[in-house]
Specification:
7 strands, alpha/beta, Nucleotidyltransferase, domain 5, 4 domains
Length: 484
């Protein structure tokens, strides 16, 4: 039997044990580690010095894990109280994410709501592992259990999801899980498609028409950024041609169209550099874009600039309120429609492909966006009346405007049903007046007299009064609708 001279631990000392385990213990002996911490120079003789113990550095993994879970429980309780006290509806966004190194799927659920101070909040309320298969039933069970856990199933306004095929049947299954009265208009507006994802699908369909030209640019970017030596040669050529651009070449992610736009936009700035390198490197010639490719990609970027700006707006995390979506989507549709009449065949083909995809999703997303823009005091119904004749044509636009108006009043009626009506308030006032024996108000029945004289039906709703007001002038400054 052997023993460590430093910590005293007993170790195997037989000849058959060898010495490998002794060397391994030297590396992990706690006493030796402490001595090295006090005197990190291995060549110097050990010495005893003052050692300041940092409790944060000395914490064990399990202790840190325990602290994190305690913090999580405290923050979850705070969030739960906020959601419980919140009187407004809660919009839910959810998405699936797959960890590549584990091949395991996770669902993220985020709650968006406006508090009593009209401040917009977003809270991640769930990040859970979702067992296979990731079908509609499994996703519904995971989402519904999350809503029940937070006790917010009767406050949900909408559920926004991407356009994955499993999400379409998930929404009807979710409605079956809860009482239909929990949702706005019995769930008529529950399903919302993600506008950013729809825009991504629309543009990707359009880009497929000229995929060859884009592939040439992509191959060029990949070639010159593939090794440090090639990129150094690219930078040297950039300096020799006195190209002032400082942006680095960026390879796109083919599932996100806006990264493709950025790749093309940057590559176009280095057009002369790529052309010069074609003369200097014979191996690059087969990857190099032709002059026609550069011309097509330049025209493409010009047409897609507005799409990129709208995508950036939709992906914003702080101010992307629903009233911003409608005018931007209308601009997108009108831009596609205009591109369909241009002379360039490839732009017309691209626009036709994009319009087909746009029409597929337009009916699914524009309902609540219309209501949101009506409630924007800068637009109201005027913006709808401005865009709809172009979007729907002169024969159809009035019918579509009437649908929006009807939807607004359906929402108002449902909202009003949760609060006392004017007549009910009058009856409550009569009851209070009759039961009051100590105070006499000579005008106690005046409100009832006014209602009888004018009729309840002649009293305008807050929505009607709001719509009759003049529009607030638009300015270049940011308009926070929650502070209106």
């Amino acid at each position: 039997m052997a023993a460590c001279n430093h910590c005293g631990r007993k170790l195997g000392g037989e000849s058959s044990n060898g010495t490998k385990h002794l060397l391994a213990h030297v590396k992990r002996c706690p006493v030796i580690k402490e001595q090295l911490a006090m005197n990190p120079n291995p060549n110097a003789s050990p010495s005893v010095t003052t050692y300041n113990f940092d409790p944060e550095l000395g914490r064990k993994k399990n202790t840190i894990r325990s602290d994190i879970l305690k913090m999580y429980k405290v923050e979850k309780e705070k969030c739960s109280q906020i959601l419980e006290k919140n009187r407004s509806r809660i919009a839910i966004t959810t998405d699936m994410w797959t960890a590549n190194h584990q091949k395991r799927g996770y669902m993220t659920v985020t709650a968006h709501f406006i508090d009593d101070s009209w401040k917009l909040h977003s809270r991640i309320i769930s990040f859970k592992y979702v067992p296979c298969p990731h079908d509609a039933v499994t996703l519904t069970d995971t989402l519904s259990s999350c809503l029940s856990e937070w006790n917010i199933e009767d406050k949900i306004s909408t559920v926004t999801v991407d356009n994955c095929t499993t999400n379409d049947p998930m929404i009807p299954l979710l409605k079956e899980k809860f009482n239909s009265n929990c949702f706005i208009l019995k769930g008529k507006l529950l399903h919302m498609c993600c506008c950013a994802h729809i825009l991504n699908l629309i543009v990707k369909d359009g880009l497929s028409v000229i995929g060859d030209s884009i592939d040439k640019i992509r191959d060029s970017v990949a070639y010159w950024s593939g090794t440090p030596k090639r990129y150094e040669k690219f930078e040297d050529t950039t300096r020799s041609l006195e190209v002032t651009c400082t942006k680095k070449l960026s390879l796109d992610c083919q599932t996100r169209w806006n990264s493709t736009y950025l790749m093309l936009n940057i590559a176009l700035l280095y057009n002369r550099v790529f052309e010069q390198l074609k003369l200097r490197d014979s191996r690059y010639v087969r990857y190099a874009p032709s002059e026609d490719d550069w011309i097509r990609d330049q025209k493409l970027c010009d047409k897609l600039e507005v799409f990129h700006e709208v995508t950036e707006l939709f992906l914003g995390t702080k101010y992307s309120t629903a009233n911003l979506f409608f005018p931007k989507m209308c601009q997108i549709k009108m831009r596609i429609k205009a591109c369909m009449t241009l002379d360039e065949p490839f732009i017309r083909d691209m626009a036709t492909q994009m319009m087909s995809k746009f029409q597929k999703y337009w009916e699914e997303i524009h309902g609540l966006m219309n209501v949101a823009v009506v409630l924007d005091p800068r637009y109201k119904f005027m913006l709808i009346e401005y865009y709809f004749p172009t979007i729907y044509g002169n024969d159809q636009y009035e019918i579509e405007i009437e649908k929006v108006c009807k939807l607004c009043y359906e929402l108002l009626e449902e909202y009003s049903s949760k609060f006392p009506t004017l007549r009910e308030r009058s009856q409550q006032m009569d009851s209070v007046s009759a039961s009051s024996q100590t105070q006499i108000d000579d005008l106690s029945n005046f409100d009832t007299y006014v209602i009888v004289a004018y009729g309840v039906e002649n009293v305008k709703s807050d929505l009607e009064l709001y719509l009759e007001e003049k529009l607030i002038p638009r300015t270049d400054e940011f308009f926070d609708i929650c502070n209106y």
